[in-house]
Design a protein that fits this description.
Blueprint (H helix, E strand, L loop, with lengths): L3 E3 L21 E3 L20 E3 L7 E2 L13 E3 L7 E2 L12 E4 L10 H6 L6 E4 L1
């Protein structure tokens, strides 16, 4: 039973759902520093996933529907060093279990508002800004 999977620094452009079809117990997934341009669907299809790192990928937008499938279960999310140019207000509002968020200032996002991120997720306990 795989609980944690580190696939960081592998230059993956995508994560096919087939890669994790039998990993229903996976709780932590590190996809940081790959070539992912969108949040992969695999992040939404893992029923036990609690921690997800997408740091350092070329993801350019986060919207209210980006994490719709797994949003309620995630407790920790790392989105540092993303070249975002669009961040929808309330993008984390459906992440009701999110307690820890790692992010960095998104220079490409006009009017990025960290207090608004906090207000849209009342369960957040730790905010790490790089």
């Amino acid at each position: 039973m795989t609980m944690s999977l580190d696939l960081s620094h592998n230059y993956f452009p995508d994560m096919p759902l087939e890669m994790t079809v039998n990993m229903t117990s996976l709780r932590r997934l590190d996809l940081s520093y790959n070539e992912l341009s969108t949040v992969p669907m695999v992040a939404q299809s893992l029923p036990q996933l609690r921690e997800l790192s997408l740091a350092g990928n070329p993801i350019t937008s986060l919207t209210n529907t980006t994490m719709i499938g797994g949003a309620q279960r995630l407790k920790e999310l790392d989105i540092r060093q993303l070249p975002l140019n669009f961040f929808e207000t309330g993008a984390f509002s459906k992440m009701t279990s999110l307690r820890t968020l790692h992010l960095s200032p998104f220079k490409g996002v006009r009017h990025f508002n960290i207090p608004q991120v906090i207000l849209s997720n009342s369960g957040l306990r730790q905010l790490h800004v790089e």
